[in-house]
Predict the 3D structure of the following.
Amino acid sequence: MSINQNQLNSLAAQQQQTTDQINSLISQSTDALTCGTNCQKTRKTDSLHQTYLNAQANVQTAPFQLQEAEKNYYTHAEGTAGYNAVRSNAVTQQAAVATSSATSTFQNGVDSATTLTTTYNSLSITYQNAFELYKKYLEENAELQDEINEINTDTVTNDRKTYYESQGYDKLKSWYKLFTWIYIFFLIVYVIGMFLAGSSYSFISKILILIALILYPFAINYVVIFAYNGMNRIYSLLPKNAYTTLQQS
């Protein structure tokens, strides 16, 4: 009797499963007839969007769910003390990681500060050397400028001296020309006077005087130089004033 009942139940379950499948096919067919391609695409899009939102919610709530699951598990398995020990261990590890990270960050900061200090010292030394070199160049430029100014002053003085010497030479040359013409004039007058004017001098004396007048321009330079050297020699032989000599020396 029980076997027949089991068979009947199995047949009923199979019949119900078949009915459900038929109903599902009918429902899908009806849905396909009533909802076209665009409708199916919209449904699929909405389904995927909902799945995306659920995944975002799971990501946001996952840490809290994990923490709650952890608490429930350890509390049930090891009691509140066991859960507290697990949390204490986790917090200790987190603190160690944070301390290590902070220490590494601090050490990096110290290294950076040391590097910056070294760089600053190097730049300071470089700046000091550059400043000293700059002052040296300024002094050298000032000295060169003084030398240039002195050269320019000497040049101007020499130019002025040359100008005055040139003026003196031109004046001397003018006087030389004047005296030359005067000499020629008197020479011509003397030659004319030799033949036209009466004189107590003999002709030979007049000829000798004429030769002396002709040789005068050529001999006067040697006569003046000889006289000048003779005067200097005589002056050097005279007794000197010691006080005046000391003042001149």
Remarks:
- The mean pLDDT is 79.
- Residues 203-249 form one domain.
- The CA atoms of residues 158 and 227 lie 32 Å apart.
